[in-house]
User: Fold this.
Amino acid sequence: AQLSVDAYWRDVLKLLEYLRQNNRIKTISELDHEQILDFLDACLEAGQKSSSITRKLVSFHLFCRWLRQEGYLERDPLAFQESPRRHLCLPHFLTLHEVDKLLASVSTAESGPLALRNRTIILLLYSSGLRVSELATLRVGDIDREQRILRILGKGNKIRLVPYGEWAHEALETYLREGRPLLARDHTGPQLILSVHGHPLTRTRIWQIVRDCGRQAGLDKHLHPHMLRHSFASHLLMHGADLRAIQAMLGHSDITTTQIYTHLDMQQLQTVHARFHPRH
Assistant:
């Protein structure tokens, strides 16, 4: 029993550290359902086993119940969460309509250097399925602008080549021409995405920018970089992309990590079946 308690407590500490690093909450009273699911998405992306993620959700159920009982939370954010064994390992992603809203929002924003930078962040994350750390370290020299290919240094210092699409190309070219030169300073390095002071953006700051772009677009979901990566993979699969090709673009070393998106596709098929089959 003590081993179980220790494991549950380690899960809670990892959740709180994740939220602290990504500047998601200032006090425990701000803990909500979406933040917990975001963390589980990140665990899934890291290749953790479903049994580990299931245990984490059980830990968070107990933790949130205790916070509610002790008065730290007004309500239990996981009170209506489905059983840990149902749909637990399915990452959250945007619908195509939500993507259209997001892209329309960032495309009609003001044309200053920060707006151009933010547009490039959103479009590269969705168009190429990058991890936030990969975008933060991406250098201008890593971009083949003629072939529209990114040279990505991924996990384990493995290099992969990932294409990007027309919308991302237009946003990137405009940013490089009209945005980044205004942000660069004498001390600026080769990184593509810069702060207002010419420094590379941190992962936390990129996370905040993505979140704010989602709010400005009027999305109901709490947008974060992982969700754009999940959307990239899910939409490719829904439109017929080969799973091995998606694995290569995501930089997954194990195909089983990529196979989670086949379950997402099955969810889509089940939704269509339920809606249109005359004898459902």
The chain has two domains: 2-69, 96-267. Residues 2-69 form one domain. The first strand starts at residue 143 and ends at 144. The longest helix spans residues 2-21.
